[in-house]
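Co-fold these.
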Amino acid sequence: MSIKQKSLDLRERMKSALSGGGSKAIEKQKAVGKLTARERIVAILDPKSFHEYDLFVEHAAKDFDMDKKYLAGDGVITGTGTLGSHPVCIYAQDFTVAGGSLGYMHAKKITKIMDHAMKMKVPIIGINDSGGARIQEGVNSLAGYGEIFFRNTQASGVIPQISVILGPCAGGAVYSPALTDFVFVVDKISKMFITGPEVIKTVLGEEISMEALGGAYVHAAKTGNAHFYAESEQECFGQIKQLCTYIPWNNTKKPDRFPKKPPRTRIYKLDEIMPTDPKEPYDVRNVVKAICDNSEFFEIQEHFAKNIVIGFTRIDGETIGIVGNQPAFLAGVLDVDSSDKAARFIRYCDAFNIPLLTLVDLPGYLPGVDQEHAGVIRHGAKILYAYSEATVPKLTVIMRKAYGGGYIAMCSHHLRADFVFAWPMAEIAVMGPEGAANIIFRNEIKKAEDPEKVRLQKVEEYKQKFANPYVAAAYGYVDAVIEPSETRKMIVHALEISSSKDVQTPKKKHGVPPF
Amino acid sequence: MSKDDKSNEPQYSEFNVDNSIYITEVPESYKNRTPYAPENVKELPAAIPGTIFEIFVEEGQTIEIGQDLLILEAMKMKNQITSFISGEIKKIHCKPGDVVRKGQLLIEFK
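Predicted complex below.
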């Protein structure tokens, strides 16, 4: 054969491998509003940057007549490309090929590209669209999952790992996304569960649809498994691209610095956002927008545990991780879910050199038997652990209430915040005035002729004396009491001062956080 | 559950933490949470759904803590259910072969 003939042969082979599961299967994929695996990769990466590898990998299964079957690329596409001009590794399961089922060689392709990402210290993006383990390949497909989980864990905190759920992702398969940093889901397309509706019906007699059990919004709002929720695949890809502008390419780098922009203070005015009555709600996201660059806040887990707000923003062009109590939802209390949500984000920022800005306004912890029994002690402890452990620059602004355990937990000086600023209306106290007065002056109130009058008097007395930032400032627990309008300026300066922060931590293999 | 389930405008209501009342959004899941009720030790409910395989006791019989009451077959396992109290059986609400739901009352004690 001449070189020309060999080249034609190569093209012929590529055509067959690139055809995926064939036109019928592709049609079916499109009919349910899904793109094909290759289309997805192309849509996420920079134009014309995708380079595919292992196109000619074939499955090695022999049993159940599998040796007679050809599965294009063994149902998964792997390669490299660029995203925002930075290199990334990527894989996408191809549902049109044997339902994207994971067999031995399928898993080998994934682990090979993961190893590549680790070696090159670049992010890995995984697009999940798979019926699960390839039953015909038995224990080898389980081995494949195990190898992926192990690599997810090794890569955690070293390179960014992004999971995109664009189809079913069930049984053991769900644990790879769960081990990664960010999980993206799309309405009506993403489905995640350990045991499906069928099994639940047979074993427990409970009937539930796939959507209600493990649909996109369930994971975005209820379970907290998903970090980003989109209405369409296109919207989802936009979110991925946006996320990647905020994070560094590996744990030895800093995120890209952007040109600094002032906040749009004509729209977001702190004086108008903050109500005068300390018990009235406001949206803490507007406070972020009033101080960050161009008032752009990229929220994470927007629909889950809304009493705490987390996300990325930029101040003076630098990526900042925001953790803020949300007074507009459950008064911003800490509870099981919000502690869990914030703690993981704090650890992400710490692992990837992103300074933390904590905005404090909370009355304490959510009261209730269900919270206590759901383990608010061990979940709440996660926040203390995460803040104490973090060595990135930690800045705190106490806006209004900082009561009791909530004050300590929200990146106080005691957990080694680098700078704690308080606004003049801040109330840093052991508890709210009503609760405190009722305890301290219990006997006086009880013995009084008019107990209600004395109670109100004592509440007012307590408020005057303790519901302010100056008691904490007198002990040095607050570095500066500042006017809200000075906040951005103070943060910019604090970030400047903290830019070469270096702290020594005790030598250990790893801690034992209250997982 | 889909995103359409929630309205966009937040509905604020009163919310009490340590005797202070805050105006804030209180989700339905919190408002409608099941109030705590102490466990009723005079009743034995099915801990998991399954099938009653065998019953060892009768109504009116006196029983001791740890005494076998019945076998509940569930998830391919025959689960021996023993009494957690000493006392007398008031009523048996199931018979061998019955398929029972989780939480379904099986035996009442006096």
